[in-house]
Each structure stands twice: as C-alpha cells, then as structure tokens.
Amino acid sequence: MIPLSYYLILSGILFTLGVAGFIVKSDLISVFISIELMLNAVNLSLIAFSHYLRDMTGNLFVFFVMVVAAAEAAVGLAIIIAVVRNRQTLSLDEMDLMKH
Amino acid sequence: MPTSLMDYLRILPEIILTVFGALILLVEGAARGGSRGRIAGALAFIGSLLALAAGISLIRYPGTAFAGMVRVDSVSIYFHILILATVAVVTLLAMDFLRTDGHPRGEFYALLLFAAVGMGFMVSSDNLILTFIGLEISSISSYVLCAYRRHAPKSTEAALKYLLLGSFATAFFLYGITLLYGASGSVSLPAIGQSLAGKMAAGGLALGSLIPLAAALIFVGLGFKVSAAPFQVWTPDVYEGAPALVTGFISTAAKAAAFVILLRVFYVALRGYSQQWFWLMWVAAILSMTLGNIGALRQTSLKRMLAYSSVAQAGYILVAFAVIAQNPAPRVLPGHAPVSGILAGPGVGAILFYLTVYTAMNLGAFAVIARVANRGERFTSLSDFAGLGKRHPGLALAMTLFLLSLLGVPFTGGFLAKLYIFQSAFQAHLIGLAIVALVNTVIAAWYYLRVVVYMYMRPPEGELPPIASSPAWTLGAACCAVVVLWLGILPGHLLHWLAK
Amino acid sequence: MLNLQLILFLIFGALAVAGGINMLRSRSPIYGALSLILVMGALAVLYLLLGAEFIAFVQILVYAGAIMVLFVFVIMLLNAQPLPPHERARFARRLGLPAIFILLGILAAAFALRYSRARLAAGSPMFHVRSIGQALFHQGLLPFEATSVLFLVGIAGAVLLAARPETQSSGTDTPAVKAADRSGL
Fold it and tell me: The domain spanning residue A60 has which CATH number?
C-alpha cells in the first residue's frame, strides 16, 4: 500500500522539472518538450486521484489530455518549422524582432 | 442517459460552425487562382450568421445537455451572441484585406470558425473536461492564425511566443483542475461547488488543503489567457507580431471566452472561497491596470500600444471580479440555479457590459490599423498615422471614436462601461481599487489622445501607398462603430436585459 | 505484496525523476526528447500500478509512440544542434529556479500533509477498457466529438504552416508582396 502523497509528490517533482526546463532551456524544441513533461506530470496526478477516489473521470480526463497534447504537438512543431524557415535558428534568445 | 435531439439543439451554433469550417476546407482544396479565399470568405460569413441565429434561438432552449456537460443559460447565450457577432464582423473585415495582403487562403476562415467552436464550448461548458477541450480548440486555432502570414518573420515569431506561453499556461490550468478534482472528486462545476460548500460548512479550510493551491494555479493559467498582469509578458510581442485582424480577434473574442471560464470557475465552483480569491483578483487588477497603462505610454507602434492598453482593460474587468468576490450573491442551490441566476450578483452585469463594449471598440481599432497598415502590414507606427485626418478622414474619424471609447469619454460605450465598473467598486466599498482605476484612466488619456493629436494636428510623414476601397471592411467597421455609439448613447436596452 | 508495490514505485519513480533531470541537464534537444520517452515509459508502469491499464497502453502507443516520434522526427528534420547557454538562461536560473523550488516545496508539503494517510489499494486493474469505453461514449460523448474539431484544426494548421513553399505562391502573390513580407513587415 503506497500513500497517495508519494504519487502526488512525484508528480509535483516532474511538474517542477518541466517548469524549470521551460525557463532554463534556450532552444525552441527543448522548451516545447518541457511543456510535454508538465502535461505528463499532471496526468500522473489525475490517475492517482482517479484511483484514490475510485472514479473513472480522472482516467477519462487523461485520455483527453493526451488527445490535446497530440494536436498541440502537431501544430506547435509546424509553427517551429515555419519559424526556423524564416529565421534559420532554433535559439529562443534570437526571437527578439519586437524588442524596441 | 441517451442523447436526444434537444442535446444537439443546445450545441447547434457549434455544429453549424463546424460544418461550415469543414466545408471551407473542402472548397478551398478544389478552388484555383482568383476564386481562392473569396468563396471561403462568403461561406464563413454565411456560416457565422447562421450560427448567430442559432445562438439567439438558444434563448428558447435553456437547460443542460449531454448529461450536464453543457449548460445553456443567459451567460452562455449572451456570449454566444457576442462571440459569433465578432466572428461575422472579422470575416467581413478580412474579406478584401486577405486579398490585398497577398495571402488569400481560405484556411484563415476555417480556423476562425473552429476557434469560435472552441469559444462556444468554453462559454457554455459546465464541466471542466469540455472547458479544457474548448479552450484548447480556440487556443490552437489562434496560434495558427497568428502565424497566418507565415513568410513574415514577425508573424511566425508571434505565433511561437503565443504557442509556448499558451501551452505553458494550459499546463498550469490543468494542474489546477487536477487538484480541484482531487479535493472535490468531480470535474463538473456545480458538483465541485456543492462538494466544496459542504467542506466549507464542515469546518473551513483543513490544514494543507489543496483548494487555495488549485485556485491559484487555475488563476495563473487563465491569467495568461486573459493577459492579466503579472502574466501579461507575452501580450505585447504577440499582439504586435500577429496580423492586425487576428490580434483584433484574439484580444476580444478569445479574451471574453476566457473571462467566462474565470467567472464560471470562481463564481460557480469556488464560490464558497470568495474571501480567499478576492485578493488574487485585487492584486491582478491593480497590477494589470498600472503595468498596462505605464507600458503603453512609451510605445511608438500602435499595435504594441493597444496590446498594453488591452492589458489595462483586462485590469478594469478584474476590478469587477473583485467586486463579485466581495459580495457573494445569495447562494443559489447548484443544479437548481435559475437560468439567469449567474447574473444575479453585483459586478457580473458590469463585466458583461464591459466585455461587449471592449469587444466592439478594440476590434474596431485593430480594423483601422489593419487598413492603414496596408499590404505587408508595414505602416503601423504612430508616425504613419500622422496626418491621417487629412488623407483619410473617414478612417481617422473611426479611429478617433474607438480610441475615445477605449479611454472612456462620455457618449461612447467605453464611458458607461467604466462607469458601471467604478460604481460597483464604490458600492462594494473597494474605494482603493476604484481610485487606482480612476488614476489609471487619467494616465491612459495621454497615449490614447496622442494618437488623435497625431492624426489631426501633424502633417503626413512620407508617402503612403493608397488604401484600396473595401465595402465589406466598411460594413464591418461600421458595425463596431454603431455598437460603440449605441451603447454609449442608448444603453437602455442592453442594461434592461442585463438586469433581468 | 506490500513491498513489491513500493519497490516498483520507487524504481520507476526514480527512473522518471532521472529522466526529467536528464532532460533538464542535456543541451541537445534529441537527448531531451529521449529522456522524455524514458519518463513516459516509467509513468506507464506507474499507471499499471494504479490500475489504469488502458491509459498505460495509450501512454506507450500515443504519447511515447506517436507524439515523441513526431518530436524526434522534427529534431532530425531541423538538424537541431546543442546551443550554447545564453544570458537569459543564467538570469532565469538565478531568479526563476528558486521560485520554482519554493512552489515545489509548497506542493509537496500540501500533498504530504493532506494525503499521507490516504492509502491506495493494491493494483488490480480497476478501470477496465470496457468501462472506459462506456464512459467515453456516454459521459464523455460531447468532448469526444469536440476533439474531432481539434484534429481538424491540427490538420488545417499544420498544412497551412508547414506546406512546401512552392505551393504557397498562388495567383495574386506578387514578388513585391513577398519581398515586403521578408523585409520584416
């Protein structure tokens, strides 16, 4: 028997790592990957709560999160490709066309 | 519970929009050369008008659908009408614009309609699963729309920033929902409200309760979406880089839909905790108004200036949210809430009125910018607007009207909208907040009036290419202007309706 | 039984954290993506422990299998190289990271206080595929239908943005407009 808090803390750690990656990373794809890690962390919490509450909704929600993540990844990567075609760089620090 | 025809009637606007969006994609695949985009534009306009009619007809079918997923009440009907009218106006504005801009792609309209589908689900959702899906449909469509001018580095860069910060915000929103689910055992808003109210009655916040955390995380997520400070950092870059009409769309309809989620989550699900989230709204309101207005002062790009201004406008709306938190309405039993029950609280009417006026004036301002900016969107700086009063009196007059309304000058909708917000703040004894809002309005006068001064009192700088005439654009902009004036001079109808 | 579950949790939880840390540490996007696949695999095992067999399989098939393959594919397509660390990163580390770890501390403390006594039952499959399917098409029917719009958006968006440049130059697109576009609005 594992306490629920173990799962939740693990999920919190993963979410935090994702946020840290989002802030620290300097290339577009890694930043986007960090967001995926955050979503995975949320999914773990949802499944753990779902198990704890003996309620199906959490499982259902995770299914939809995955669907959304797939669509987001498709569009996000398309945007990244469009940016790289225009700018020939993946560095987030060079995304400064609008700093006056 | 099997679904019935009634269930589908209650999402009829979304169904119509989806069908027309798919139809546009099909037609666009077959169209060649000059007809590209033209048929799509016409289809989008027809589709949005039909959906608008369906949205109005929802008045006859209040209630819930799809086992409590959808709740058709006065708020959802009101925002359906607002959002669908916005989409119809944006299609009008875009029709000639896309062609002169050299990007006649019908996908633009399809994505516009799909974004509206997402917003429709956002405003009528009573379940966080559907709220989440709706939010993502509208967000992902908006990301693509921002990158619509995909060979322009600024456009794609704006889309990239919107995408990264938007998805980041979504993750926070989701984490908040998860904790709320863990604390209450449900993702249905009325059920969460009931469960949390029961917990509150049983002895208040337990040590280590997840609810304040959940509320804070949800607020971070939605704060990004409505560009409330301190989560507004993405706004200037995205609004400046995205095509002007897209900016007009995402700064009005998308923001209004996100405010409805904020309203439903905090007002329905977290209503028992209003003393806790009051401070969230209070701080965010003051920060948004102040940072937005101060940021706008030194901008030379009009799009960027209006981006900061829209942060400030979000701040005024958050003042009304603080009012709601201060005066929780008489508790209506969840599930038994009368259709107009959500409107009962003080402040809610002010929010609806403000969002309506804000949508009309902000969209109008961006429509003028899109027109003056001309093909390639090269002319968006303040100096490009110098002398506009002589060269294009009509455009200058429209811009003046929208800017004065944004500032809140009497006889424009913006004046009454601000008045109602300030009034409700005074009535709720939030004097400090009301004074900060007033001071901010005075600060804002400087940068709004500066544009007017440039348009009428400065000589034109340099040669600008002629602006092609566009009847569709004129019609669309006229709609915005009429709404701004109508709500400024004869607001009685709407106010009467809101009071009901 | 008790120990086996705890041991499995510790092993795969540690793997997930190791993957996350490795993603944070590595400069190269491809290592980041591969670390994330490790995290996803570890999480799939945890989902099995939590009785969510359907989600565990979908996690492997869709998340690790489809989404991450897309990432790896794009990384290869763009030939993404490791970037040197930048000013922004150093600045963010100094300011942002402490704030994040405070957030983690609050989260962990809240979880530990609130749920340390909430034990989870042994992990026999709790949510069968059949019941998930039933819930999906009753309770979740509308969101399920709405996701089809989401995918339409995804398809239309990806086609609009990433289509080959040649197909873009249709009809009214004059060279002057394109030049104006490129010259930065």
Answer: 1.10.287.3510
